Amino acid sequence: MKAVKRIDNDVENGKLEIKEKSKRNNMLVTVQNKALLSGIAYCISSCSMILVNKYVLSSYNFNAGISLMLYQNFVSVVVVSILSFSGVISTEPLTLRMIKVWLPVNVIFVGMLISSMFSLKYLNVAMVTVLKNVTNVITAVGEMYIFNKHHDSRVWTALLLMIVSAVSGGITDLTFHATGYTWQIINCFLTASYSLTLRRIMNTAKQVTKSGNLDEFSMVLLNNTLSLPLGLLLVLLFNEVDYLSTTPLLQLPTFWIVITLSGFLGLTISFTSMWFLHQTSATTYSLVGSLNKIPLSVAGIFLFNVPTSLDNTASIFFGLLAGVFFAQAKMQEKSQS
């Protein structure tokens, strides 16, 4: 009888172990599927946003980049507000103290979006993605002087490769446009300034919230809401009102559909990036962002019939690979720290 009971117990324990292993495997598959799905969603939304903006500014020849930015941010504010009022998400209320703390960040944020619009109008998508690598160089230098952060030789090697690719890409660019390159360099400085300033103000901003926390939804609503009055002021200063009152594009339903889609895409990037970060890690997010530039550059060249040469194409892909090398170096640097 004891032998029979022992056998029964062994069988039951074996079944329990199999069930537990099966549960763990199912959980692992579920997590991997969510990470994969969130990564795909982030890649599609970020690529689509840049391509749609390029389409609006170039194919439609829309000459009001500030107004486009303003409308996209307005769409984001409307959607997030509806989700907040319906109880789907929770956001921090906008207070005068919060606005005072966040205003410097928002000014840089608006400048970053506008300079990106202007550079996309004059430059092809592939060169924009390569030149954006300069942002990493400026950010790394800023981290040294502001946060006393030191980088290892692999990171600096990757940054040097990025500079070389940007210079060689500009020299061999058959569609070189000085205005576009000027706006893109300004965008690189503003993007780096935005990330560095955001790190410094984040803790202060959390202290003036009611909950003591500032999540991504609240930051999206805060940034886009504060950008509306500043955007309106810039529309008046750059005299885009006259252009908007005379352009026939605003009478085309298809044009409104496209720019509204761009507004939803801008909001989708915020949601998918947050979802992807939650499912993986910041280092994986950075690596995927670098890899994401490769299909984006190829799509930009073919969709917009960009004239290119072998030297320019080699420079572009050299810069893209430098971005991947930079992300890997940062991952190794973080794992060793």
TrEMBL record:
The chain crosses the membrane at residues 35-57, 69-89, 101-120, 126-148, 155-175, 181-198, 219-238, 254-277, 284-306, 312-329. Residues 38-325 form the Sugar phosphate transporter domain. It is a multi-pass membrane protein. It is found in: Membrane. Keywords: Membrane, Transmembrane, Transmembrane helix. PANTHER family: SOLUTE CARRIER FAMILY 35 (PTHR11132). This is GDP-mannose transporter GONST1-like isoform X2. It comes from Solanum pennellii. The gene is LOC107029046.
